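Q: Can someone sanity-check these two? First one:
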Amino acid sequence: MRLSWRKPAPLNWWAAREAQYTTAAPLLGGASITLLGLVITDRDKFRWPDPALLALALTALFMVVAVVWGVRSRQYLYSRGDVEAWWGPLSEMSANRREELIRDQRRHYSKWIRLAGRADFCYSSGLLCLATGSSLALAPPAHAAAPAWRWLAAGTTAAPVVVVLLVWAVPRMDNVIRTWQADDHDST
């Protein structure tokens, strides 16, 4: 079997990820730190300052870790063209050397996928925490005179969190229910 080079699909997927970890995650992490400072200094103006602080602190942590994993993963993604730019034309190499470089690239590509997956998990978790923290910060304090607009804003930012959790949790709950039903059916 002849080894082949691995490539991301779609081909510009790595560029989108790189922008996510070098631009979006630092900006969102910085925004969460700014909001943390606001909640800390004006905690009496928030209905649930402590849960909001926790969610925003987790946002900052997840975004920083996403940057670390994202940047760390990038060193393992390179193409055949990158190899040729460094080592010279593949056509001028021995078959053994070409195979070795392909195996190295395939192994590195797998490592890139793993590390970038960790970065994706942290980035997505940070987005959920940011939406949660924002929603908690937007909920009007108990003494607010006309809180309808703030409740609407809080609900709007909470909606993506609820949707994502339902999309993630419902299939898993369905599996749990099926398992319970199968267990009940087997025991009767």
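And here is the second, same format, sequence then tokens:
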Amino acid sequence: MSVLCHIAQAARRFAREEDGTALVELALMLPLFLLLFFGLVDFGRMGAEYVMADKAVQIASRVAAVRPAACAGLLPTNRRGTVPPNTTPPRFGTACSAGGGTICVAQSAACTGLTGDPLVVNEIWAAISPLMPAGATTANLSFRYDFDPALNFLGGPYVPVVTVEIQNLNFQFVTPLAGLAALATGGTGTGPAGTLPFPVMSMSLPGEDLDLGENG
């Protein structure tokens, strides 16, 4: 009976013992603290890179609007559209928007930084590369030139709506805990940190008849 009493007393003393509880609490709270801290670091970086990439696409579109087309296949002037039989062809100088927009041939083209004119692409890239995320290349740029009848007239210079797009960019986490967050939200999770895809960013501006740069 005395043995049982000793065991019961030892159990009560063990239950009242608080040595080491601070260590247990630290073990429970430290991972949460590190997750929040590393999350602030990585998502702060991601926000900064997003803002810089958005500024980069604005600069790229402004440069592209006053430079020759980066994509091949566009004629420098507006040609006549299809003329119906037994009708008088429209005169040069007629707005392309007249007659339902069929006065001029609609021209459009699209290309990427890899297939576009290297002179134009490299000039744009030199202006925006310091703002682009690490690992970005000219392959992440795409260009589109769309015909807008309201901007053009027959026989005049072709003035497109110029769209520059930044695509296929990934944000690279530097902390393992943030990599777990990337996996949880649809990132690739490759490597110890993981990546998250950037949204596609684009900006459109009407072209300007200044595409010769300082010679225009």
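A (reply): Looked at the second one. The first helix runs from residue 2 to 16. The chain has one domain: 24-84+91-215.
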